[in-house]
Amino acid sequence: MKRFEEYANKYETVRMERRDGILQATLHTGGQSMVWAEIPHREVGYAFADIGSDPENKVVILTGTGDAFIARGPGPKPPWAMPPEDSDREWDVHELWDKTYWEGKRLLMNLLDIEVPVISAVNGSARVHSEIPLLCDIVLADEGTVFQDGGHFPRGIPSADGVHIVFPLLMGWNRGRYFLLTGQEIDASQALDLGLVSEVLPPDKLLPRAWELAEQLAKQPTLNLRYTRVALTMHLKRMLQDYLGYGLAVEGLAAVQQELRRGS
After folding, report:
1. pTM for the structure as a whole
2. Alpha-carbon 230 to chain mean position
3. Does CATH number 3.90.226.10 belong to domain 4-210+222-259?
4. 131 is known as an active-site residue
5. Which member of 43, 131, 251, 259 is catalytic?
6. Could you state, in order of their start, the residue ranges of all structural domains in the chain?
7. Cα 15 from chain centroid?
8. Residue range 193-244, pLDDT digits in tens
């Protein structure tokens, strides 16, 4: 078991606060919108594990900072091609992808292993790992939210590290595959119509509404909260268990080929 004091200030890219059993986890990079890079790729899954290991958490709110839930990094290389900043040795491309494989599985599985309701409050664009907020039990979006899978197929990498499961499941197979293959952008109103989100709110109303819902849920008995979350995520966890690792493997084959060609 974990205690809040043990992990509240542990992570560089996840800011945490808790009140009356409701934990808010805010993704960020230096206090601004999270830029997806090596550090958040490494940290966020472990943050989910710590949150899920704390029996004092009754409801979790997951949100971002600024005008993007997660923003795509500006660098020439994707996060998987970047060794840890504190590493003092050279990493070859196969080691880098093995690291990504390890972290990628835990990123989503640890989120689903949080055994209390999770509410996502999606602030602005979610163009990278947009499946993360959609795996939450209640999904709220602000009026400027845009969903896209901008980091995979349009950039030469298979859409296969979780998005290949989540979007066809939520949108229907044909619409989901179209979304992934074309780099389609889905705005907040479209997301509401498609059932990806449950409410669309003005930006200044987003977090207050998330807290309102969290406080409503937190009134329920602890076992009701925990076991309902377990029941509602069983099918998702089974699908991820069956297909996430394989998806990361085929994504890795294409990524390694791309990196080797870049270096040749």
Report:
1. 0.95
2. 18
3. yes
4. yes
5. 131
6. 4-210+222-259
7. 15
8. 999 999 999 999 999 999 999 999 999 999 999 999 999 999 999 999 999 9
